[in-house]
């Protein structure tokens, strides 16, 4: 975003006032004013940008002067007669009692109005120097840096400001910089600090802030937005400040968002419970845009003038803390993450209240996972509907209380029975990482249920930094019936069917279309062979019994005869 050029108006004679007061801190200056002054044009100035800034600078000569190699300044004169006339005219308007006639008189008056003069001095917005600058706009020569450097400068006092034509989105204008230019090269770092913004997600696994985490559908996730202000915040008259936060369609913003003020970064980062920050929510206006085509929503927290908020300094941290609920539109991790980003918009030029910049977006990633139970007949390996299961978990935070997973992927303290559909499938999305216990509580009629088993969703994730995100996700199945329960889909090729066991099909652990894990469960059908020809069977039993009785009786009589013959 280009900024219209009006910076010179607020800058030029500001240098005059600061320059006049430099004598006591910069060098042993001899405040000897003359109408004319011979100078040397071999000075150079290099101004380094702060991190994140890319601007160039304009320089205005306020005074000519002789600058000795030891830093002594003498023979100070006005840059030109027009500057002199403009400054003296302004002083008379500001102070009706002023009766000065010489440059020395003007210098004495202005010096009293400038506080904190130094080698590189920034003046307060709306102060005498800013007002004088408006009067001398265009009345003094200017130069522009190239590659942050300008050379061939006449010796004397110079004022440098940001070239408004080089302020792009993400840049910030510097406060006026005053310096004495002599034969020795001058190196300065601009007087600004580009505001930054950072977004963090609080992980339920460890309770800490990260750039990437995973969550369960129905879970309220805490997000924190951290914003800084310009290093030259005190030089602004007004300071616009706005968080523009976008959440994906898989999240629903909850009520209760708060804005807090902290003295510094350490205080803000140490207070995740938000008990010690100053609540400044009422200083911000919350607004939500209509949903974008992709279903994402953007919410803004806007303060039109942060200068009105008591206690804000250049070191302050502004924190927005809110919760968002994972909903049924959350993307499953096998495909991509649920990305959420924030941009900070801010005043970026202390000399133009309408000039605004913005930070690059800072993005965090939230992941959910999915699980699909595929139920089949172990013998025919065909789909098997109406099998009933419960699925329970302690979550990746390992809660003591076991919770049931419902058909939407949400957790419940009440028992939830899940049933396979006509395709023999139960599909659950929006799951968190962790161990899930699957129990078949009721097999279809005529089938025997399998024993309970567990399945663990194991993500490998880079929690923080530019490369934050999911790098790999695996699953581990634990079962006592390895031929009846497998991780993945069953291989139904002709040579596999009918062997009364399940065989893993390569490449089917995770569905490529939606990222859910597959588990296949095979139930054994109960077979009771019918007793046909019951009357014939009964007769045979009776006849067999009769023969047995006759045989036993014959055996007894034979033994008695044998015993009698021996006697």
How does this structure look, described?
The chain has 567 residues and is an alpha+beta fold. The protein has three domains: 8-189, no CATH class; 197-366, Sandwich (Immunoglobulin-like), CATH 2.60.40.740; 369-525, Immunoglobulin-like. Helix content is 14%, strand content 35%. The protein has helices at 12-20, 81-94, 103-113, 128-135, 265-270, 534-566; strands spanning 41-48, 57-67, 73-78, 142-144, 149-154, 156-162, 177-181, 186-189, 197-202, 209-210, 212-214, 220-228, 241-247, 251-253, 258-262, 278-279, 285-288, 297-303, 317-326, 338-347, 356-358, 362-367, 369-377, 388-393, 403-405, 411-412, 418-419, 425-431, 434-442, 447-448, 453-462, 469-478, 485-487, 516-525. Strands 9, 10, 12, 14, 15, 16 and 19 form a seven-stranded antiparallel β-sheet that branches. Strands 11, 13, 17, 18, 20, 21 and 22 form a seven-stranded mixed β-sheet that branches. Strands 24, 25, 26, 27, 29, 31 and 32 form a seven-stranded antiparallel β-sheet that branches. A hairpin with a 6-residue loop joins strand 31 (453-462) and strand 32 (469-478). It is rod-shaped and about 165 Å long. It starts with 11 loop residues before the first helix and ends with a helix.
């Amino acid at each position: 975003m280009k900024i219209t050029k009006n910076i010179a108006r607020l800058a030029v004679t500001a240098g005059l006032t600061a320059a006049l007061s430099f004598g006591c801190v910069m060098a042993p200056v001899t405040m000897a004013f003359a109408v004319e002054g011979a100078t040397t044009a071999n000075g150079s100035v290099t101004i380094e940008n702060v991190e994140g800034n890319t601007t160039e600078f304009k320089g205005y000569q306020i005074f000519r002067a002789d600058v000795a190699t030891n830093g002594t300044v003498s023979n100070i004169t006005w840059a030109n007669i027009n500057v002199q006339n403009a400054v003296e005219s302004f002083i008379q308007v500001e102070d009706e009692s002023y009766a000065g006639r010489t440059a020395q008189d003007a210098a004495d008056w202005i010096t009293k109005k400038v506080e904190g003069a130094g080698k590189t001095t920034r003046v307060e917005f709306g102060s005498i120097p800013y007002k004088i600058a408006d009067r001398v706009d265009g009345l003094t020569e200017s130069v522009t840096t190239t590659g942050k450097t300008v050379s061939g400068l006449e010796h004397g006092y110079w004022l440098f400001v940001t070239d408004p034509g080089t302020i792009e989105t993400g840049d910030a204008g510097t406060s006026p910089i005053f310096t004495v230019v002599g034969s020795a090269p001058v190196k300065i770092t601009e007087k600004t600090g580009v505001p930054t913004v950072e977004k963090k997600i609080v992980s339920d696994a460890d309770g800490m802030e990260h750039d990437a985490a995973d969550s369960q559908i129905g879970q309220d996730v805490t997000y924190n937005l951290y914003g800084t202000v310009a290093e030259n915040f005190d030089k602004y008259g007004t300071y616009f400040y706005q968080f523009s936060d976008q959440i994906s369609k898989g999240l629903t913003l909850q009520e209760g968002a708060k804005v807090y003020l902290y003295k510094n970064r350490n205080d803000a980062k140490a207070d995740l419970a938000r008990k010690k920050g100053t609540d400044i929510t009422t200083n911000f206006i919350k607004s939500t845009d209509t949903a974008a085509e992709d279903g994402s929503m953007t919410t803004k927290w806007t303060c039109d003038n942060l200068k009105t908020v008591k206690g804000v300094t250049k070191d302050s941290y502004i924190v927005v803390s809110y919760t968002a609920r994972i909903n049924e539109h959350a993307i499953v991790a096998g495909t991509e993450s649920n990305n959420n980003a924030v941009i900070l918009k801010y005043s970026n030029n202390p000399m133009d209240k309408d000039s605004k910049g913005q930070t690059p977006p800072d993005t965090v990633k939230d992941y959910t996972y999915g699980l699909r139970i595929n139920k089949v007949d172990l013998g025919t390996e065909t789909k098997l509907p109406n099998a009933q299961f419960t699925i329970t978990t302690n979550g990746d935070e390992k809660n003591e209380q076991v919770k049931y997973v419902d058909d939407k992927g949400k957790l419940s303290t009440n028992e939830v029975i899940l049933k396979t559909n006509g395709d023999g499938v139960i599909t659950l999305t929006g799951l968190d990482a962790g161990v899930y216990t699957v129990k078949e509580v009721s097999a279809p009629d005529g089938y025997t249920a399998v024993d309970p088993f567990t399945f663990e969703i194991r993500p490998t994730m880079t929690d923080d930094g530019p490369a934050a995100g999911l790098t790999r996700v695996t699953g581990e199945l634990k079962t006592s019936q390895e031929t009846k329960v497998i991780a993945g889909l069953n291989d139904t090729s002709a040579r596999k069917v009918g062997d009364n066991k399940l065989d893993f099909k390569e490449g089917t652990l995770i569905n490529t279309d939606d990222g859910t894990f597959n588990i296949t469960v095979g139930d054994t059908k109960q077979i009771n062979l019918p007793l046909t020809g019951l009357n014939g069977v009964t007769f045979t039993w009776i006849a067999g019994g009769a023969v047995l009785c006759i045989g036993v009786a014959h055996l007894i009589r034979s033994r008695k005869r044998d015993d009698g013959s021996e006697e």
